[in-house]
Amino acid sequence: MIPGRLEKALGHAFADPGLLQTALTHRSHSAPHNERLEFIGDSVLNCAVALELYRRFPALTEGEMSRLRANLVRQDTLHRIAESLALGDCLRLGEGELKSGGHRRPSILADAVEAIIGAVHLDAGFDAAAALVGRLYAAHLAGIVPGQQIKDPKTRLQEFLQGRRLALPQYVLLDTSGEAHAQNFRVACEVPALRLKTEGVGQSRRAAEQMAAERALEKLK
Amino acid sequence: MIPGRLEKALGHAFADPGLLQTALTHRSHSAPHNERLEFIGDSVLNCAVALELYRRFPALTEGEMSRLRANLVRQDTLHRIAESLALGDCLRLGEGELKSGGHRRPSILADAVEAIIGAVHLDAGFDAAAALVGRLYAAHLAGIVPGQQIKDPKTRLQEFLQGRRLALPQYVLLDTSGEAHAQNFRVACEVPALRLKTEGVGQSRRAAEQMAAERALEKLK
């Protein structure tokens, strides 16, 4: 049973509600699950964001648009979008995943957002799916200041602190988990002068540091 | 001056011929050049191929579709499509690139194909661009045998030879070029028992070996 609330939040009424049901079904629950829809959704998302950046920023190079896009489509951004939709409550998970808190896991939530985008494409075509992406990313797109956000978060944080003559942040590896081919890193970013401490996770140490730096920047805004 | 032949081969008459002109203009020639269109086209291509695989192969997993797609959108495949369009004759290159044979360079040709796909999207929307991708890739898509092509070329070549009780191929690094962060590898694949020798290039040794193996398989067909 899909909450009407979710369709309303998405701004799309499904002609085939089974597609949304599938998009919300994790593979641990039952088949059909959302992995194939996620494959579609991931590429629709990449494409819709590329087109949006192309239209909004005529002066940006290909490389600059690539970097902006990578920032918009990464798991952390999708996770926040999932949280803004309260998507965790709508997911269908297997018992094991439910018990281990799967409905709060960033990767599961991010994948479901992509699957929903894929479901809307199959339900109503590319333009409808791209319009959904535009709605989900409205705030993120509006917040882009070319030339600023093109620099990665660690660089921006460093420049912010240097501009105030404060000591540079320290990045501390908190732990790693997972097997060798799919490790997860958890890193803290500490700015003692501002009594600031944030955390980031990622599949590389660098990615985790970037996320921690981004969160530090948000607190400093 | 764009040859009418090209529009005919593409099966798309541009409402705005300037878009096609830009798609054919390398950055060495003049601005506006095709790099921003290539960014759009790359993502439209990825998306259109994803949708095509989703529709054609309902039994494939996300991972299997990903591998098939990677094979379809890589430079070597795009290069062949460019050659089938005789695209080299239509490119606008700077003098230096012209002299050094830029109109035959795989990367320049592959990029121009992507830029054309992007130009069609801007000219007539996603569905028109996806239809172009369907036409350009018709033979490649029709040639997919799930479960066969999902294995990578080196594996398929090995299995082909083992099935005939022949010695395994040898991969020999011929040379590397370029700077450390953007090296190019050239590798030979040799099957002495069949007097077969092919070459492949790529940005990693493994990628070059896969291309050489793929070309060996084509000769064995």
Give the tags.
221 residues; 11 helices; 2 domains; homodimer; 10% strand; 57% helix; three-stranded antiparallel beta sheet; mainly alpha; globular
Beginning-to-end CA distance, first to last residue of chain A: 40 Å
Sheet/helix structural class of chain A: mainly alpha
User: Number of DSSP strands of chain A?
Assistant: 3
* CATH architectural category of the largest domain in chain A: Orthogonal Bundle
What is the CATH class name of the largest domain in chain A? Mainly Alpha
For this structure, the CATH topology of the largest domain in chain A is Ribonuclease iii, N-terminal Endonuclease Domain, Chain A
Gyration radius of chain A, to the nearest Å?
Answer: 19 Å
- Supply the number of helical segments of chain A: 11
Strand content of chain A: 5-15%
For the largest interface, the chains and their residue counts are: A-B, 23 and 23 residues
Main sheet strand line-up of chain A:
1-2-3
Residues in helix, % of chain A: 55-70%
Specify the biggest β-sheet of chain A: 3 strands, antiparallel
Low-confidence stretches of chain A: none
Mean pLDDT of chain A: 91
Secondary-structure element series of chain A: HHHHHHHHHHEEEH
Number of domains of chain A: 2
Principal-axis shape of chain A: globular
How is the quaternary structure best described? homodimer
CATH superfamily of the largest domain in chain A: Ribonuclease III domain
Subunit structure (chains A, B): Homodimer.
GO biological process, one term (chains A, B): tRNA processing
Enzyme class (chains A, B): hydrolase
Cofactor (chains A, B): Mg(2+)
